[in-house]
Design brief:
Two copies of one chain form a homodimer. With 413 residues, the first copy, chain A, is of the alpha/beta class. Chain A has three domains: 168 residues, Molybdenum Cofactor Biosythetic Enzyme, Chain A (3-Layer(aba) Sandwich), CATH 3.40.980; 77 residues, Alpha-Beta Plaits; 155 residues, CinA-like (Maf protein), CATH 3.90.950.20. In chain A, 41% of the residues lie in helices and 25% in strands. Chain A is built from 14 helices and 17 strands. A six-stranded mixed beta sheet of chain A has the order 2-1-3-8-7-6, sandwiched between helices. In chain A, strands 14-13-15-16-17 form a five-stranded mixed beta sheet, with helices on both faces. Chain A starts with a strand and ends with a helix. Strand 2 of chain A pairs antiparallel with strand 2 of chain B, so a sheet runs across the interface.
Chain lengths: 413, 413
């Protein structure tokens, strides 16, 4: 199967936003064994949109569109698809009801223009949108398939994962099976070097490495006649990969490090508190992004000022004066003070320099100290993170905090 | 002038990299008053590439390509452009010399395939590449212009800035000016309803609404002969827009609410602390994402458990028992307790239900209370946020916390 990914929206042509949908969908299509032939972007213009839909089918049998499904006048994707396919647009009563209930529930007036979000080409398969008001849909005619989804990634991505992918998987020829491994402390090029002969010698399963923000992933994929055959091929390759990079793999199920750590805490009935300086609440946020952590997470203290470090955590003025706020001593006193207040089983702390200012030759931007009080003992860990930018350093620091917890929970029993 | 931005490279179709070139070039074209009609991406395939070049001219008089100019076999952009334009490819002797010197300088052997980087369509204007080996070029024939640049952004961007932009500026008709307004508490469809007659009656300036996560933006754009004329037209329209939706506009410069609030605190020399329950550190994180806030931000307390609320903030057990953790009373006691510890000028607190569990008929998921102690007075604000998912509710809650601060700082003097 060959497809074109068509993005609709004048804001994309203005360069106001990055087209992350296209990257996401390209990855997903390729994973499913569907070849992506073209990316196209067109503005909210009916004639050009219709022309693009027609042209995209020149060497493809499928188009995926994002954007232009909303309530406003310039949202025209649905109408132009119907025209290009020679289909009538009708109101789907059940979709109208969902829409009306949505506005009722939030006690918001439903303006006239919203009604068109319940209209679809007559023979469309509708994909409900639990995260917004514009549903997606699929339409097929004369061997040409089109799948249309809303533009906001927070609506498009869940719709794709929960509805569109299963819909497409039922149509794909052959069975694809894959595993995505998460790897830390081993950059993408190092990872590739260790696996180069496997990568080069294999046509199926294929191995592909991807660099993510602070880690790498390795995807082992096989496409065979049956799922069982594909699974067996992936398993066999996985065993070889484990031999090469086993200690660096922290997940074979594409799971976030934070989820793995928090699940372990929950299983073992351990409580966690955190005292943050340079990460400024980013670790607490990452923990509480996960629902159901209140059984584990007691409290977080963001002590941005020295005063707050002393008052909230009992860090001593002398320690701050002698070693500076960014030091193993302060990290350890933060963890200690946090324990006195919270009595949590794991008391984690961090102090560091997120930049762009505040660095020195001795303590450069990117230097962090992580403290941990656990089983009556306080330790600290020093990392020098790559100084690319503040956002990167802060999120990388959070990753390292989870890494310290991971190693404490899984490797040091 | 109307243009298509055409990216060449199979790696883009795999979704391995984000297409930042297209965003950059779209912004640049729009600033120069050149309309971007399409984005297109095609792989390193000669036939499809040639077809795209032809199709892109349907309603454009210009194409900008990036990628496919390198030395390898699958770098074919130049060759396909020459074919599409019916031009002969010849070696440019001065470019060959530059190329040979480049390899000499870095003491690298020059393989045979590198030679083609000195070849161009016969009538091309060449743009030398000081940051790589593949020069760019422009070609014009029968009123159709094509500009071709290498793919790596660190080569493309300087080439554009130093050579291509001056080349194009000599040819551009008219100047574009626009303003992007940020609007809160008014959804995209409501915003459009209020401005519909303006949107419909105008061809220049144009008005376009976009939905963002928890707000809407409105873009007013004008293209006139001179920048001064375009600016005047936008100003005049802006005045009309202010009459309709003035109180909902918080920025006329496309600025984040958090930045506006934090700058105001800095200007007025006010300090801020926060006590978070349901947002779990997300507000502290958002504040400390901004560098240089340590002069303003004192501390953040994430009290996830009731125990932590009592110990860290002095919330009373009776209040928790009588009204529940999610109540205006608890929000106010949190703000009060935070003030006792920090003495900050603004002590902000939040308690709410981020879901997916924990809601009830009386207190549904998405209910939040924001407390604020300011000038000796404690207030609380109740909001029922749309229950789409935990992540959305939490980030929307953070937005509302900034909104409370914004109104306090700007509207209640």
């Amino acid at each position: 199967m060959k497809c074109t990914i068509l993005s609709v929206g004048t804001e994309l042509l203005f360069g106001s936003i990055l087209n992350t949908n296209t990257v996401y969908l390209s990855q997903q299509m390729n994973e499913m064994g569907i070849d992506v032939m073209y990316h196209m972007t067109v503005g909210d213009n009916p004639l050009r949109l219709k022309d693009m839909i027609r042209h995209a089918y020149v060497d493809c049998d499928m188009i995926i569109t994002t954007g232009g499904l909303g309530p406003t006048q310039d949202d025209l994707t649905k109408e132009m698809i119907a025209e290009a396919f020679g289909e009538e647009i009708i109101t789907f009563p059940e979709q109208l009801e969902i829409l009306q209930n949505h506005f009722k529930r939030y006690d918001r007036p439903m303006t006239e223009n919203n009604l068109k979000q319940a209209n679809f080409p007559k023979n469309a398969t509708v994909f409900p949108n639990p995260n917004g008001t514009a549903p997606g849909f699929a339409l097929e005619k004369s061997g040409k398939l089109i799948v249309s989804m809303p533009g906001p990634p927070k609506e498009m991505v869940p719709m794709f994962e929960q509805q569109v992918r299963p819909f497409l998987e039922n149509r794909s020829d052959g069975a694809l099976f894959y595993k995505t491994l998460r790897v830390f402390e081993l950059g993408e090029s190092m990872l590739e070097t260790r696996l180069l002969d496997l990568i080069n010698s294999q046509t199926d399963p294929t191995l592909a490495t991807y660099a993510k923000d602070h880690e790498s992933t390795l995807r082992i994929a096989s496409k065979r006649k049956t799922r069982a055959e594909a699974e067996a091929a992936v398993s066999e390759m996985l065993a070889k990969v484990r031999e090469r990079i086993g200690p660096f793999i922290y997940s074979e199920e594409d799971e976030d490090l934070s989820r793995i750590v928090l699940r372990k805490l929950l299983q073992d009935g351990l409580s966690l508190s955190v005292a943050e300086s340079c990460t400024g609440g980013a670790f607490s946020k990452a923990v509480t992004d996960v629902p159901g952590v209140s059984a584990v997470f007691d409290r977080g203290i963001v002590t941005y000022s020295n005063q707050a470090k002393m008052q909230e955590l009992g860090v001593r003025a002398e320690t701050l004066a002698q070693y500076g706020a960014v030091s193993s001593q302060v990290a350890e006193e933060m963890a200690d003070g946090l324990y006195r207040a919270s009595r949590s089983d794991l008391c984690l702390s961090i102090t560091g320099i997120a930049g762009p200012d505040g660095g020195s030759a001795e303590k450069p931007v990117g230097l962090i100290y992580i403290g941990l009080r656990h089983r009556g003992e306080v330790r600290s860990y020093r990392y020098q993170l790559r100084n690319s930018n503040r956002r990167y350093i802060r999120s990388n620091a959070v990753m390292h905090m989870f890494l310290v917890l991971y190693k404490t929970l899984f490797r040091e029993d």
